[in-house]
# Entry
Amino acid sequence: MSGRPSPSNAHAPVASPGELPAEPKARILVVDDEASMRQWLQIALKKDGYDVLTAQSGREALELLRHPDRKVHLLLSDIRMPDMSGVDVLREVKAVDRDVIVFMMTAFASTDTAVEAMRLGALDYFTKPFNIDELRLKVSQHLEARRIRDENVLLKRALKTRHEFSSMIGRSGPMLEVFKMVETIAQTSSTVLVTGESGTGKDLVARAIHYNSTRRDQPFVALNCGAVPETLLESELFGHMRGAFTGADANKKGLIEAAERGTIFLDEIGEMNAAMQVKLLRVLQERRFRPLGGTAEVLADIRVIAATNQDLQKMVGEGRFREDLFYRIHVIPVQLPPLRDRREDIALLAEHFLEKYSALMDKQVRSISRESMALLEAYTWPGNVRELENVIERSVALEQTPAVLPETLPTYIRSGDAAPRSVGRATVPLPVTGALPDLGEGFDLEARGEDFYRHYIALALERAGGVQVKAAEMLGMSFRSFRYYAKKFNLR
# Structure
């Protein structure tokens, strides 16, 4: 092809190449059927610190792009090539990886081809012969903009330092073993299965693994498999194409694609149905997937951390969980101890939650009395750390003195019961007016109160079309209080 670079440009200094991402190096794929053009661009871009791959045809380029271990960040392709045009390559590339940056180049400039390339997602268009300094500068600018847009690295590192490990509080032997395990496995990319009773902090372990890993600057995406209806789980995980089902008015990126180069945390994986288990198994085996209603496969460079409070091996024996999937996610198991087996951590956790909720509620509750702490340490905590957090939140809300006194602890903790004798949290909420319900033995006012808040906040959100400010006004609440309870009850 024509458009050979002039010798004067081949070794020209870059006026302002900008700072390049050093770790990991951005990877560029140069596609051109002319060997001298490929070599010239490879030499120039390697000088800027990029990892540069080359292909002499569109089909060879697509083979490289589909390789799961060769994530390409920027594609620089000629338009006129013998086997397939650069526009066709662009179309195929966007089907494989819609986020890749694409530059086109040609010796035969045409408005029609430029418009078509831009319509399909190309970010820039160079007419041969072009100035190599201008190309290098634009490559640097687009890659840097992409890096900043994808992830705020400093924020992620601050999150890691500020709360990811500190939220996992403990000095007991079992927790020290967990900390040691997390530090060891964080540096690998192996799949992890976190097990333990409900409320033990499996999500915190998953976050700690991610934020102490080499993927810490990439997304951490969490999904509770039991909280999403079966009919929506596939779309939530894999995304969908426009028209895939009724109501799919636009393409939607799934959570696996959103977690690209990062970590996806699949909580309550035992709730996943058989069909979805098969699809997840394929992702783990082949590191690729197909969006719902799509024809092209998308690469999945992700780390998977799964969690469950169920006995998956028992479920395998009962035919409710695939054996092959179990062994795929059971590469590195992490078992979290229940709170009753780490009683020396109760005081540390209680003080941590006291500080948290005193600040959130802007209350001057600064300590837990000796009598209250003794009651907390004697209780068996069937709901584990989550139950302890709820008890401290409740006590801070009710306490009128600078210290949490026994009187503000739930009755079942003061009486030494093994668990609250609740009539159930899934009861009908307390009516605003009318006769009181039966106040016989076992009535739990706090549980009923939470049901009341949850019910009416959800109702207000529904009637306000999801607009929180409007819903807060309906209930006569401050927006800050409304937002606090909506977040607490996980209402959207």
